[in-house]
């Protein structure tokens, strides 16, 4: 039955458009679009990115893979066509999602890829179209788009079509402001169900947490929850944080004034804002110093101690760690008063100074 449906030409495209319309209409009815603070540049980038991805980037990569395949490996074209559909589908979708998990995680941990992924996290509100907000080059380098093209060449078109439909449903759903999982956290009787669901697929609470601005908000984990369709990889590689609420604030800690052209076409177009990572003269500041910093803390307050040494608000985090493997350390002050916080980042009792700097 599923295979027969998948035989219909372009069925995956109809489904994806249907999914977008479904979330788009529901978000509009719920009043989210009317109350949106999105600027014109946000809309231009998101809509253009969606159309360029589907009509230019993907067809181009498919074309290149088919050209190269026909030239160098013609005997492999459609060679998987006789394999069991379920085996093909599972192999395709699991490899696809694993590739995307590592690409996404690497984009958070390396400076250049981070700049290509930064547009996605610049969005200060969630919504179905945020899923498509990345620099053009981010998509061109995305390994799982190349993987899709390869599976198509090998004859797995139906597996790709089904995978695309299910994946878009999960991804757009997890970016949407609709938060379909909210009732599962509100009613105790539904808790066991969501516990199972969130350990399989990415839910809005799980992914919204990744878009949260700061770890100071306990519902936010911008340095984790990298999965796209399945939460399996986050659980396996130690980056999963399950949430039952949603961040209070979305977007980056450091606000910059960037035109959408810099955000979408970086590194070919640069931002005029000198504070922006897309500005040609931008450099991350090394703010490490041996001396500890004395700060005044308030008992019971939460703080984020900078672990990377690049914050301009030492000893606290200002979000400069994005694009590195560092993440800030959250701690709660146990008393009110002056405390010496480590600024050599070598203390054995971080965030507090233990005089390790005297030995350096
Ligand atoms: S700026 Fe966040 S850990 Fe250094």
Q: Short summary of the structure?
A:
By secondary structure, the protein is mainly alpha-helical. The chain has 2 domains: 2-236, no CATH class; 286-360, no CATH class.
Structural commentary:
With 360 residues, the chain is mainly alpha-helical. It folds into 2 domains: 2-236, no CATH class; 286-360, no CATH class. It is built from 13 helices and 4 strands. It has helices at 2-7, 11-29, 40-72, 85-109, 111-122, 136-140, 143-153, 157-175, 182-186, 191-198, 204-211, 232-236, 260-265; strands spanning 293-297, 302-305, 329-332, 337-341. Strands 1-4 form a two-stranded antiparallel sheet. The longest helix has 33 residues, at 40-72. The relative contact order is 0.11. Bound molecules: FE2/S2 (inorganic) cluster (FES). FE2/S2 (inorganic) cluster binds next to loops.
């Amino acid at each position: 039955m599923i295979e027969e449906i998948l035989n219909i030409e372009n069925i995956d495209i109809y489904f994806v458009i249907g999914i977008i319309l479904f979330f788009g209409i529901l978000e509009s009815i719920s009043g989210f679009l009317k109350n949106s603070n999105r600027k014109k540049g946000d809309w231009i980038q998101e809509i253009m990115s969606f159309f360029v991805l589907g009509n230019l980037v993907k067809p181009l990569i498919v074309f290149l893979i088919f050209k190269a395949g026909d030239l160098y490996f013609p005997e492999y074209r459609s060679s998987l066509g006789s394999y069991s559909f379920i085996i093909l589908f599972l192999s395709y979708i699991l490899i696809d999602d694993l590739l995307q998990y590592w690409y996404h995680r690497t984009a958070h941990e390396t400076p250049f890829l981070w700049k290509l992924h930064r547009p996605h996290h610049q969005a200060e509100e969630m919504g179905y179209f945020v899923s498509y907000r990345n620099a053009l080059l981010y998509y061109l380098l995305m390994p799982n788009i190349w993987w899709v093209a390869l599976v198509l060449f090998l004859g797995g078109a139906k597996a790709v079509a089904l995978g695309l439909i299910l994946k878009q449903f999960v991804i757009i759903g997890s970016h949407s402001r609709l938060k379909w999982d909210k009732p599962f956290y509100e009613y105790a009787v539904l808790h066991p169900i969501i516990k199972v669901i969130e350990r399989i697929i990415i839910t809005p609470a799980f992914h919204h947490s990744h878009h949260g601005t700061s770890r100071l908000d306990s519902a936010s984990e911008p340095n984790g929850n990298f999965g796209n369709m399945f939460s399996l990889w986050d659980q396996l590689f130690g980056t999963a944080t399950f949430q039952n609420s949603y961040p209070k604030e979305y977007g980056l800690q450091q606000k910059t004034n960037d035109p959408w052209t810099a955000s979408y076409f970086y590194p070919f177009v640069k931002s005029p804002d000198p504070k922006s990572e897309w500005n040609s003269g931008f450099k991350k500041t090394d703010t490490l110093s041996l001396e500890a910093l004395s700060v005044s803390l308030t008992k019971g307050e939460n703080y984020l101690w900078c672990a990377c040494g690049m914050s301009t608000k030492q000893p606290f985090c200002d979000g400069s760690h994005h694009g590195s493997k560092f993440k800030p350390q959250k701690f709660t002050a146990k008393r009110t008063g002056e405390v010496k916080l480590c600024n050599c980042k070598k203390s054995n009792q971080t965030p507090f100074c233990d005089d390790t700097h005297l030995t350096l």
